[in-house]
Amino acid sequence: MPNNAKKLLSSVVKDDYYVESNGVGLIRSRRFSDEKGIDHGFSTRIGGISAPPFDTLNLGTSRNEPISNILNNYRILCSAYGLDYDDLALVRHEHGSKILRLTGEDRGRGLDREPLEYSDGLVTNDPSVTLVTCHADCSAFFFYDSKHKAIGLAHAGWKGMFARIGQRTVERMQKEFGSDPSELIAAAGPCICEKCFEVDLELGKAFEKEFDCPDILTYGTGSKSDKAYVSLHAAAVIQLLDAGLDENNISLMNHCTMEEKDLFYSYRRDGKDTGSMAAYLKLK
Ligand SMILES: [Zn+2]
Questions:
Q1: How far does residue 41's CA lie from ligand 1's centre (Å)?
Q2: Neighbouring-strand partners of residue 124
Q3: How far does the centroid of ligand 1 lie from the alpha carbon of residue 111, in Å?
Q4: What are the 10-residue block averages of pLDDT along the chain, 284 residues in total?
Q5: How are beta strands 13-14 and 250-252 bridged, if at all?
Q6: Is the sign of the CA dihedral 158, 116, 146, 41 positive or negative?
Q7: What is the CA(196)–ligand 1 centre distance, in A?
Q8: Does residue 235 contact residue 197 with C-beta atoms inside 8 Å?
Q9: Taking the model in full, what pTM does it have?
Q10: How many angstroms is it from 180 CA to the middle of ligand 1?
Q11: Ligand 1 centroid from CA 110, angstroms
């Protein structure tokens, strides 16, 4: 039986909520917040010091904004949420499916120290390092293995989603930490939604084939008949199920980065003159 995106998306929990501390806004998953062994968040544009068009909490180091502003914004985020700035390690994403295992040795990399190797997923069982990924329409995958005290965090643009970066991260956690996929909890971050994510029909069909899911796309009509609209969250859920996760252990942060302009940066909406959100995940 092919996958049914509508059914899958209606059966996984949407448990995100918005919090503000010291004027800095974050999206969190209730399920992840309930776990005592971890701390996590997905930033918004609320808080920070960046001027338009990067207003105001730009956390993307590859944007056309002075790096000092971005590092200041990271300090503001850390101070608002009790994180140690020196513990952060920032992914250098390449829209692929490479995953790095980090240790305390990597603290500071990508911020005040040399960048990490190119990758899109980070895993660790070391509580001294805080994993950080950047996003501007791209989703995030959060993973927690409470039994082996291990975590994974991945950046998932459409290319990474198509390359099953979420599933690859689970496989890496199995290999590195002995994680049992059926015991992992996972959350997918906010991303561009299935109404807004317009692609060429050919790519839409490729998603349908890769995820064996006819309704992962809807077809454009009229002048858009050569286009399709793809659900990245459906692709996320299907690859997590394929990786062996329990449907009850998967949750979604149900926001659209393109539509919710007050909360999120969006590359698709604003082009290169936009900032980035960041996701973070750490063991306590
Ligand atoms: Zn949307």
A1: 21
A2: 151
A3: 31
A4: 96 97 98 98 97 96 90 98 98 92 98 96 98 95 98 96 97 98 98 97 98 97 97 98 98 97 95 94 98
A5: parallel
A6: negative
A7: 4
A8: no
A9: 0.97
A10: 34
A11: 30
Cα of 250 to ligand 1 centre, how many Å?
A: 21
* DSSP E strands, the chain: 13-14, 16-21, 24-29, 38-43, 88-90, 99-101, 121-124, 130-135, 139-145, 150-156, 185-188, 198-200, 217-219, 227-230, 250-252, 277-283
d(CA 123, CA 121): 7
* Pairwise CA distance, residues 75 & 89, whole Å: 13
Distance CA 103, CA 109 (A): 11
Q: How far is the CA of 50 from the centre of ligand 1 (A)?
A: 25
276 Cα: distance to centroid of ligand 1 (angstroms): 17
Superfamily name and number for 5-193+233-283: CNF1/YfiH-like putative cysteine hydrolases (3.60.140.10)
CA count, 13 A, side-chain hemisphere, 270: 22
